[in-house]
Amino acid sequence: MDFSFLVEMLSRLLPGIPLTLALAAISLTAGFALAILLALLRASSRPGERIVRCYVFLLRGTPLLVLIFLIYYGLGQFAGVRHSPLWPFLREPFWCAILALTLNSSAYGAEIVRGGLTSVPSGVIDAGRALGLSRPRLYWLLVLPLAVRQALPAYGNEMIALIKATSLASILTLMEITGIARMLVSETFRPFEVFACAGAIYLTINVMLTRAMGLLEYRLNLHTRPAVA
To answer: How far is CA 142 from CA 122, 147, 176, in A?
Structure first.
């Protein structure tokens, strides 16, 4: 094993980390916000439930790679899209990748948040109504905080999956970690070492994220832990 080569490859892969983190951060933030809206819409009415169920079915049943191709290569064939105000964004690989990752994440996140909403005890809702809280304030002050806390472990897995899914953005010529790794393979013809270094970087990012999520979960559940004398 040529350790000097591994060190060199790691140093050349590091510039791709900011783009990978940007893709993940923007997609996770937008996907989480959309997931909450979808979960609330599903719980609001029968038509809303049907719309969200159809959305989740389509997005979860479609491979992310196919979704990226549909957005980046497919939308441009419609004249209405090319002449719309959104075209300056949709013609850019970065924003197409963001859109695909956000839609995919929101579909999975909606089901996770829905599970958190259903886990909220009915007594909490009854107590909020007894205090005279309106439905929006009841959800904002009581239901959503409890639902997010319950859904946090499962959503942590979705965050890890999304970070790994950012590697698919390399097919749109984005030079994130995997994109740089593919370029280095074409230069060195040593795919094992290059992709092993790329995998080590993804693993390090996910380990740090797992620790952060574990700490956040610990802080949000201090009331469930036994008191220390």
So the answer is: 11, 9, 40
- The answer to the question of residue 181 being in a domain is no
> Which sign, positive or negative, has the C-alpha torsion 70, 74, 76, 81?
negative
Contacts of 118 (CB under 8 A, 6+ apart): none
Model confidence, pTM: 0.90
Answer for the pair 90, 73: CB distance below 8 angstroms, yes or no.
no
Helix (H, G, I), strand (E, B) or coil at 121: coil
Contact between residue 218 and residue 34 where contact means Cβ atoms under 8 Å apart: no
The pair of three-digit structure tokens given for residue 173, joined into one six-digit string:
């010529």
> Per-residue pLDDT tens for 77-108?
888 888 999 899 989 999 999 999 999 999 99
Give how far Cα 50 sits from Cα of 14, 32, 39, 57, Å: 44, 20, 12, 10
Q: The CATH number of the domain where 164 resides is what?
A: 1.10.3720.10
Structural domain range at position 27 = 18-172
Q: Could you report the per-residue pLDDT of 125-139, keeping only the tens digit for each?
A: 888 888 888 888 888
What one-character DSSP code corresponds to residue 71? I
User: What gap in Å lies between CA 71 and CA 59, rounded to an integer?
Assistant: 13
Question: Cα–chain-centroid distance for residue 68?
Answer: 15
